Amino acid sequence: MKDNMKDNMKDSTKPRRPPNARDVAGLAEVSVSTVSLVLNGKAALRGIPEATIQRVMEAVERVGYRPNAMAAGLRRQTSDTIGFISDLIATTPHAGPMIQGAQDAAWEAEKILIIVNTGDDRSVQDRAIEMMLQRQVEGFVYATMYHRFVELPAVLREIPSVLLDCRSEDTTFTSVTPDEQSGAVAATEHLLSAGHRRIGYLQTNARIPAAMERLEGFKMALQSRGVDFDPHLVATGIDEFSGGFEAASSLLDLPTPPSALVCFNDRMAAGAFRAAHRRGMVIPRDLSVAGFDNEELVSLFTDPALTTVQLPHYEMGYWAVTNLLGQIAGTGAAGIRHRIACPLVARDSVGPPKDDPSSRDEN
Amino acid sequence: MKDNMKDNMKDSTKPRRPPNARDVAGLAEVSVSTVSLVLNGKAALRGIPEATIQRVMEAVERVGYRPNAMAAGLRRQTSDTIGFISDLIATTPHAGPMIQGAQDAAWEAEKILIIVNTGDDRSVQDRAIEMMLQRQVEGFVYATMYHRFVELPAVLREIPSVLLDCRSEDTTFTSVTPDEQSGAVAATEHLLSAGHRRIGYLQTNARIPAAMERLEGFKMALQSRGVDFDPHLVATGIDEFSGGFEAASSLLDLPTPPSALVCFNDRMAAGAFRAAHRRGMVIPRDLSVAGFDNEELVSLFTDPALTTVQLPHYEMGYWAVTNLLGQIAGTGAAGIRHRIACPLVARDSVGPPKDDPSSRDEN
DNA sequence: CCTGTTTACTCAAACGATTTACTATATCGT
DNA sequence: ACGATATAGTAAATCGTTTGAGTAAACAGG
């Protein structure tokens, strides 16, 4: 009676603490140790009979028990958490899949991601890293929205880290980036195979690895087919629609204009479309165009749809976390530089050159 | 000597445990209690002199101490973490700013976000929520990439939750959505002010709140200016470029076509551009067009640039977390339905009607 | 009956903080 | 000189798990 009253008092007064392992143990009439053992699948190893396991499971169900991950983590000295630092990915349209890839890889390993977008602000970044370390993240993914070189905060050296879509001078970091060069090779070869020999290149004026490597791929592809690279066919502008428009205009106004263009990115390619249209040219009849990035909207709005090269964002995100988990588990190596292929997405902006001298030779 | 040896052994054998409060206390020659007091700014209240505070801080610096958030959280029974469940936001281009807004609000309150993209998979969602609850999240933001009705898992009722860009039949949940209706009113009034009286509407065939509310706003704006709503001027299609193209085509082929179009979204508006161009019409001379969503790339590629209505993604994300934090702190109310205004972004796709009868009256 | 092994658990010490209650010394008013 | 008050701390309990070491009971073998 007295007990009963006390219980009732307790029930109504308590701020309703969520059930813990002790509650489960009480109900199942075992010790908390046993509960823990059962819940962690170590019951078999310790010779705990099926009947007891059942009792525990029922009790778990009955009280609605949910293990407290902080307590477990504290004891186990793990957090099952990885930190994802990015400059601006969440706000950048086509980089979102990186997060998805990272998340999927983490998910499969029962880890979760804590993501902070620093907006490229150093102090935010440093505080974010500090917060994550306090939360005992097991590793970092350091991601940028486009392939570039970064200066890394020194703390990243303390725990496993991988660079996603960026690189550092410090080669002890693992990094994963698009294989820009082979992507550009693919695009260029696609044009070469269509019969083009006089191919222009629309280059960005940004001094980033992507710029160098794509141009390099362009040159390599030409060379492998025995076509001379002509520097006059490279026009430079900002890597947006307007830059593409201007750069393409300058090439199309040449005495002998190119019959095809490889563009640093889709936006520039879209600018090239406009430049061609303004001159009464029809794509791909009068000009073939290949882009880079495979931005959904660009290919939706270019008419005909733009042939382009896809950046492997999802795959990079996935690879980054997979490698990171390897490092954390001690089974994977750090310091490797991984490149992921950029597949060509062939659509309708590429055709044979209008006056195709090679078609007589090669067809 | 023996001690020394043992210490050395320890030093070289130990897997290098990160420094904890005890280490700091030892160096500063105080108790761990004091260290905690100092680090939590409670030193003043407890009359701990400046000199001791200094000693502790120096020791913290010296050993590179970083408080373990899991241990603190366990003791304090808080995680300073909020869960962010979304269907597909990370992969949807224009919804990214929601995450940024949510993050910024969380950041200001020293909370961190754990984000999971469920890809609209129920089982992933349920597991994600379970994981988050185990990690003691203090509340949930449940977000969708476009404004729609959702069926919520029952567990969300257990702890504070807010719906971001979606709504539930259960009105005990706080929700924040775009004020679609007033956005459509703004766009329509913009056209009316330019002199248009015969305005078409390109509607999506998706049965979502955004569809109803935008159309409703369109009607309201007409009515408030005394213009009769003509159902024949509403054409329906899928909410993509192609749907816009087709729907606009059908309206433009009417015996007396509209002089302006309000479109469910920017993609349909872009389709309308193409339909107009195909008919030799020039925008905005022959047709004015207003969109909805303000997708960056669309406005970049439409020529002239598209006048549209912006969705307040960032603001919604920010508001959602702010309200959630209020609920968590017990100071904020739940169950409120908040709408955020959608500002008009006037660009160049709207002009006066070609043959403007009202310009004689009103100008 | 005694010893050794297996079975089926339990005990209690961690993990690393926070916080309440307590103590020891110094200072002050009377 | 005495009790009261302020000063400057500390000890120990606690949060909810995990886990290595331990143990009681049952059983087998001799």
Describe the structure.
Two copies of one chain form a homodimer. The first copy, chain A, has helices at residues 2-13, 21-28, 32-39, 50-63, 69-76, 96-108, 122-134, 180-193, 209-224, 241-252, 266-278, 296-301, 313-329, 357-362; strands at 81-86, 112-117, 140-149, 161-167, 174-178, 199-204, 234-237, 260-263, 288-290, 308-309, 337-340, 344-345. Chain A is α/β, with parallel strands linked by helices. Chain A has three domains: 2-67, Orthogonal Bundle (434 Repressor (Amino-terminal Domain)), CATH 1.10.260; 80-172 and 313-340, Response regulator (Rossmann fold, 3-Layer(aba) Sandwich); 180-307 and 346-362, Rossmann fold (3-Layer(aba) Sandwich). Chain A has a six-stranded parallel sheet, with helices on both faces. Chain A has a four-stranded parallel sheet with strand order 7-6-8-9, sandwiched between helices. Chain A has a two-stranded antiparallel ribbon with strand order 10-12. In chain A, strand 8 (260-263), helix 11 and strand 9 (288-290) form a beta-alpha-beta unit. In chain A, helix 6 runs parallel beside helix 13 (313-329). The first copy, chain A, is elongated. Mean pLDDT of chain A is 92; it is low at 1-14 and 358-363. At the A-B interface, helix 5, helix 6, strand 2, helix 7 and helix 11 of A face helix 5, helix 6, strand 2, helix 7 and helix 11 of B. Chain A binds a DNA duplex (30 and 30 nucleotides) through helix 3 and helix 5.
